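[Meeting: bench + compute handoff]

Bench side (C.D.) handed over the final construct sequence. Compute side (W.E.) agreed to return the predicted structure before the next meeting so the bench team could plan truncations. Sequence as handed over:
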Amino acid sequence: MSPIRSLIPLLITAGILIGGNGLQGTFISLRALQEGFSPSMIGVIGTGYNIGFAIGCIYVTRIIRSIGHIRAFSALAAIASAGSICMVLFIDPTSWFLMRLIQGVCFAGLFAVVESWLNARVTNDTRARTLSVYRFVDLGAVTLAQYMIPAVGLDGFQLFAIISMALTLSLVPISFADRSSPEAPAHVQFDVRTLWRVSPLATIGCVVVGLTNSSFRSLGPIYADGIGMSVTSIATFMSVGIFAGVVLQYPLGHYSDKLDRRQIILVATLGSLAASLFIALFADSSPWLNYVGIFLFGAFAMPLYSLCSAHANDHAAPGQHALVSAGTLFFWSLGAVIGPLFASFMIDLFGPHALFYYTAAVLACFLIYTVQRMTVREGVPTTERRMGFRNLLRTSTFFSKLAGAPPAEPAKDKTDRA
């Protein structure tokens, strides 16, 4: 740990942010249900966050370049903290939608500040260790934060206050970080056409991940409550799905580096489709069957984003990797905006199990599309791939750089690959 000791304040800040964000996502859904909001209205509120996140991804580098890392972080953390307090002062669907939209912008910016700062401080010798610690922080913070809900309870203002305090306290460790201000990051260009030209399959795959995984994160608590789970069981249900995401990341990634990556995308899609059908058809109201089902869903569905990103990078020309990274995050955000909205209306019409019928339908369509794309062009031979599989978080465009993207080179066109 000695070589990355100077990065510990930034990693602690990241843990507070990730935990607070994971707690708020589950808590807002359950509290909105308790306040009498319909599932479709809760879906609209979740969509507000994702709209804000997409906006934040596009504009955050301009903010950092204008006022610097620490001032950008301070401003965004203060706004997000105030948003949490406003939600308990104004318990109204329209107000909550606006607050979640604003918080989406803020969290996209906060993660970008932390990750661009880490990128400015990390070296090739410390990159792997920093990345490992960052992933551990992400998994631990999100999983443990879920249990704040049964520990504190849904009623009153306490959890709103705890989330606000966490966002405010995230300023403390980052204030003790290296006092030298890192160089402002280069502007991240979002050219959505580039990713489509490079890989239509990766583009559709990222949208599918947004449509399905974001619906689980936003509406999973609504499903669990609808089948009669206790608050503690709901926290466990969400934690199991999130934790399962790391179980098959590296096995699937390892084989995707050795085989046609689309074959592994097919395996992950088929596995998450089967898990969705298992939950919808057989889990019923049994907590343990639902835990098994959501574990399988998370294990297969969560790696899909990283697999699609790796597939896009297989086809990317030198110098296009930054555009691909920005494009995958943008198209995931697009799916994340639409998914919870549509899935919540399905729950309103057909009940809680409609959530997993919906994810199964989306994944079935993607399965067919993947098979069709495999007949259109050949996969990239393993000897021609410039980059291996990387386990990516969807926190900001800077995470792919932290995960070890290659340096930019002069671009050349590779979109005419057969």
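W.E. noted at the follow-up: The radius of gyration is 20 Å. C.D. will use this when planning the next construct.
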